[in-house]
Amino acid sequence: MIVLLLAILGLVFGSFVNALVWRLHEQEKIADGRVLKSKRARLRELSMWRGRSMCPHCHHQLAAKDLVPVVSWLWLHGKCRYCHHKIEDSPAIELVTALLFAISYLFWPAGLHGLGLMQFYFFLAFLVGFVALAVYDLRWFLLPDRIVFPLIGLAVVELLATLIFFHGGWAALGLAVWGVAIASGLFLVLYQVSRGEWIGGGDVKLGIVLGILIGGPIRSLLLLFIASLLGTLVSLPLLITAKANKKTLIPFGPFLLTAAVIIELFGSHFVDWLNHFPG
How many other C-beta atoms lie within 10 A of the C-beta of residue 239? Predict the structure, then answer.
């Protein structure tokens, strides 16, 4: 029953991610001066808190029956009820978020009480932000500050809550410092040396979030290793089949975020294996 409830909650937040990503990108277009309509009125329409749900093509306000995650998309055959344009928001995002919520509960490494329960709630919030960042980066090759900075704030709040309310908090602070120094610090060096050609500034800021969340030198190095491995496994087939070349842009953010989820849920198993590795 808990898994089912979390899956439903994940569907709802996946729908939120679809709306958030589209609205943020439209707001950025206005900020860049590429939209001629009245900025103030358009920004009001695009507000996550004041704007109504709408079709991105005809801008018709959507009814509640149009907003049921996955079900509405299937019922409408992936097209807007009013203008019949293809719905750009993919139900796959809703399904992936639901799956992540359920898997996180099933494989949560800490107990669901005390510190472990608090960390689990925080992790669900991180997952929503991670999915939003991954989708944005895949579509537009950017990790927007308007998502990354709130995640940094959320990571700091979790760290402070651990320090204040739970024993061993100072150890958590030390691990967080190590994590940020390795994850974000390494990216900063690469960014400065390459002048932004090898890695983007968004990855440097994302490294702060992941460094605090993952914590510790071993787990942070594992994060970078797994992210690089995933990137290689995706890039090599594209290069071999000539679907990509050395100049093709492949966003690194989704690989980092995927690796962070893997480490958070299964990192202790990797660390135990490394500690008992022969030799």
Answer: 12
Q: What is the mean pLDDT of residues 241-255?
A: 87
What pLDDT does residue 279 have?
Answer: 54
Q: Determine the Cα–Cα distance for residues 236 and 51; give it in Å rounded to an integer.
A: 43
- Residues in Cβ contact with 188 at an 8 Å cutoff, skipping those fewer than 6 apart: 204, 207
* Residue at 119: amino acid letter: Q
Contact 203, 253 (CB under 8 A): yes
137 sits in which H/E element: helix 115-140
* DSSP conformational letter for 114: T
What is the sign of the dihedral through the CA atoms of 269, 179, 220 and 212? positive
Torsion angle of the four alpha carbons 99, 100, 106, 111, in this order, in degrees rounded to the nearest 10: -160
Instruction: Give how far Cα 201 sits from Cα of 44, 54, 129, 216, 226, Å.
Output: 29, 32, 18, 22, 20
Whole-number Å distance between alpha carbons of 221 and 253? 16
* Contact between 101 and 215 (Cβ < 8 Å): no
pLDDT in tens, 1-25: 899 999 999 999 999 999 999 999 8
Asked if residue 198 has pLDDT above 60, the reply is yes
Interval 117-144 mean pLDDT: 96
pLDDT digits (tens, 9 = 90+) for 30-86: 776 655 556 666 666 677 767 778 888 887 888 888 889 999 999 998 999 899 899
Q: Residues 216, 229: contact at Cβ < 8 Å?
A: no
C-alpha pair distances (Å), 172 with each of 51, 64, 83, 159: 40, 44, 53, 7
Q: Is 54 in contact with 81 (CB distance < 8 Å)?
A: no
Lookup: tokens for 11 = 């569907």
- Rounded to whole angstroms, how far apart are CA atoms 95 and 121? 19
